[in-house]
Inverse folding.
């Protein structure tokens, strides 16, 4: 099971819509990106935590059910740091 | 800032800093240091304010980690008593010379994508060593021995783990936005990087991308929501230090991982490009193609060039013949499709460095480099017929002017009525009306072709390709 992406998008959209007031003066896209990164980092960080947690839980039950250890890195949370499956190996994993 | 952020033509305005030192004009903004040439070799001065960060880079193990992974250009430190290029010097380093400089807007989709992934990989490794990329410019990356490598050794800063990544916006503009446009709209939009030197603005990318990309989580977040946020969240005089304490390494890695997976999911089917099947289509039958390979191979073995520029290289079939004789080879083509195919083969096999989307060498970068190293400028029918002939209203004059410094050229005399792909290429170039009303090669004859090169080159060999009306030439500089 994957984290609910729809809820994540909705959460982010609501955050942008209500938590922030519109500026009508000089626009600095740099400052916008800066604050935006803080907002999405909270959402993406939560998704990553859920993924890691879910990977551990499902891995525990899989091991209990089969009585065998999963191969290393099989659990979603162990694949790397990317909330969408990034495996943290960028340079080596270019095949896709 | 890298030396490659400045057009070649501007090198003429480089600043003399010493008897033999020439400071690069594009290297003036960074207080950490600058690039200069000493006796024709690129050096980098590290200024005193950057001393601590440089020491951290070297002593933490990050430098060796990145060099071992092929992600950072190696360098040697000059002796302490080596003369600096300017005051305020902490140290002078000499990076490993690059074989060939190319620009991000010239890269094919996969070349830009690999460069983006390399940048994220560098950032992730840097964070582990307590450092961070202070910018994420595509111009800090070069395809060195085909693979993307960071050439700006001074791109790092001490990492504040409670602080957002300062290169985030630049990464989106320099990598994610052009890649998304290339994948979802048109691969030629990568050329927008040429007119937007600091990357494609996020709001512009958001407008150009089709609505369906809103359904892609990564693109929805990093492009579409990002664009809206830039307007909504922008405030005059934002105190960025207010962001401290609202990030942590876990969240930073989450952002990096999200960017990485978004990039990896972008696809472009280069096999659809018009020239990708050039050899398999109607230009050469099997006998003619085999004979052309045989003749070109003979020319190359006889000439034994040190460096070869294969102009109009397509997927690099003839470039590989030059590699076989030990030459350094640069494959140049103005169609991103076959270049992408070529690049992916090179990554698997090594040897040739394909550079896409150039109309031959830049004006200020004639084939003089080739001449200095004693190489052949290798050209195919499409290259001079399509690019140098039709594109400049002369059958071969433009090419021969540019090739004047080459020590030799291999050419195939264009036969416009046979080479159907020349016609296809011309159609794809845009407004056809006045262009097509003119004859394709005004004043062109076989004699005129040879005469055009006669001033600078002597015909060493002339061979007709079996089963084809084309004639191959090996011309050697007089």
């Amino acid at each position: 099971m994957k984290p609910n992406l729809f809820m994540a998008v909705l959460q982010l959209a609501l955050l942008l819509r209500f938590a922030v007031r519109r500026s009508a003066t000089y626009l600095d896209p740099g400052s916008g990106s800066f604050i935006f990164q803080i907002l999405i980092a909270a959402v993406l960080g939560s998704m990553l935590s859920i993924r890691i947690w879910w990977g551990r839980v499902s891995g525990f039950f899989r091991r209990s059910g089969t009585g065998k250890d999963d191969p290393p890195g099989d659990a979603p949370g162990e694949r790397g740091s990317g909330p969408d499956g990034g495996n943290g190996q960028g340079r080596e994993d270019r095949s896709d | 800032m890298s030396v490659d952020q400045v057009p070649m033509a501007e090198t003429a305005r480089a600043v003399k800093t010493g008897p033999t030192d020439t400071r690069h004009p594009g290297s003036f903004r960074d207080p950490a240091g600058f690039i200069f040439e000493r006796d024709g070799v690129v050096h980098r001065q590290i200024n005193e304010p950057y001393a601590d960060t440089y020491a951290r880079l070297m002593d933490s193990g990050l430098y060796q980690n990145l060099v071992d992974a092929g992600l950072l250009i190696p360098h040697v430190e000059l002796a302490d008593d080596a003369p600096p290029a300017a005051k305020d010097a902490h140290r002078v380093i000499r990076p490993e010379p690059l074989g060939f400089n190319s620009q991000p807007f010239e890269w094919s989709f996969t070349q830009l994508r690999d460069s983006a992934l390399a940048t994220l990989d560098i950032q992730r490794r840097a964070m582990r060593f307590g450092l961070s990329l202070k910018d994420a410019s595509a111009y800090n990356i070069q395809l060195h021995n085909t693979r993307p490598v960071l050439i700006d050794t001074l791109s790092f800063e001490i990492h504040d783990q409670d602080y957002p990544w300062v290169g985030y916006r630049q990464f989106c503009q320099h990598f994610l936005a052009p890649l998304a446009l290339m994948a979802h709209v048109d691969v030629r939009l990568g050329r927008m990087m040429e007119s937007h030197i600091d990357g494609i603005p996020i709001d512009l990318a958001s407008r150009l991308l089709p609505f369906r990309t809103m359904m892609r989580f990564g693109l929805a977040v990093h492009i579409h929501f990002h664009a809206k946020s830039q307007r909504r969240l922008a405030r005059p005089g934002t105190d960025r230090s207010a962001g401290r304490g609202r990030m942590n390494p876990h969240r930073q890695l989450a952002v990096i991982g999200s960017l990485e997976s978004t990039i990896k999911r972008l696809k472009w089917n280069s096999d659809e490009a018009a020239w990708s099947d050039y050899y398999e289509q109607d230009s050469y039958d099997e006998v003619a193609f085999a004979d052309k390979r045989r003749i070109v191979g003979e020319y190359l073995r006889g000439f034994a060039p040190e460096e070869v520029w294969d102009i109009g290289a397509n997927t690099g079939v003839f470039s590989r013949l030059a590699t076989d004789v030990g030459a350094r080879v640069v494959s140049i083509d103005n169609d991103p499709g076959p270049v992408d195919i070529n690049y992916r083969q090179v990554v698997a096999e090594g040897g040739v460095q394909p550079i896409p989307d150039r109309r031959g060498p830049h004006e200020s970068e004639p084939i003089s480099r080739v001449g200095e190293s004693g190489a052949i400028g290798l050209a195919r029918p499409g290259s001079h017929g399509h690019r140098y002939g039709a594109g400049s209203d002369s059958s071969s004059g433009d090419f021969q002017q540019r090739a004047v410094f080459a020590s030799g050229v291999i050419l195939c005399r264009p036969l416009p009525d046979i080479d159907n792909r020349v016609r296809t290429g011309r159609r794809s170039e845009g407004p056809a009306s006045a262009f097509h009303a003119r004859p394709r090669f005004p004043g062109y004859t076989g004699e005129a072709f040879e005469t055009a090169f006669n001033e600078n080159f002597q015909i060493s060999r002339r061979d007709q390709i079996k089963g084809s009306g084309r004639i191959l030439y090996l011309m050697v500089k007089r």
About this structure: The CA atoms of residues 274 and 428 of chain B lie 9 Å apart. Chain B is about 40% helix and 15% strand. Confidence is low (pLDDT under 50) at residues 1-14, 359-376, 379-398, 418-440 of chain B. The two ends of chain B are 41 Å apart (CA to CA).
